[in-house]
Fold:
Amino acid sequence: NAGVTQTPKFQVLKTGQSMTLQCAQDMNHNSMYWYRQDPGMGLRLIYYSASEGTTDKGEVPNGYNVSRLNKREFSLRLESAAPSQTSVYFCASSEADFSSSYNEQFFGPGTRLTVL
Amino acid sequence: AQSVTQLGSHVSVSEGALVLLRCNYSSSVPPYLFWYVQYPNQGLQLLLKYTSAATLVKGINGFEAEFKKSETSFHLTKPSAHMSDAAEYFCAVSLFNTDKLIFGTGTRLQVFP
Structure:
């Protein structure tokens, strides 16, 4: 099992450019998440998807869109990149099995994005 | 609303010394609590989790954490630090029957020889 994979690993954009960050998981998990990590701020949830076909906003959704393409894949799109979106982006997935009463998330290796 | 506070953004210890990383949570209902570790240039990896089965939780790499409801704390400890423990550590909270985690701001652990 590869777990959670993300592409690309690194990306440099100019202000106003668009791009899509890709995420895939092979654990048959229902829920998937996109976070951004900034120094001193921990991880902040951008969007999440509780199941195929559903998406919901997290704490910091402005400037982003997402697509849950199928159960395996969850992409994050920046339509018009801004310097404030310079960050490290992590994708995660979880079983979200409420019968087990907890939510363990598995993380990808991250994408380092710089917007000039 | 639930939240977590990690006291100390940086902690430095000598190799062989006790590691203590602090986490306090705020929740009106019993929470589920997690510690994740992030090694340089990597994603987050689960260290241990509290899900109400036992208040003292043992995790990987010799780490453990104790849930103290009276203190609303879930501090992470390791009796003897190793150089390989140098990383950033995140405390997180989740409520029963939700599929979201709230993360603390992280504590960077440095281990000196």
Notes: DSSP finds no helices and eleven strands in chain A. The longest strand of chain A covers residues 31-38. The mean pLDDT of chain A is 91. Residues 88 and 112 of chain A are 4 Å apart (CA to CA).
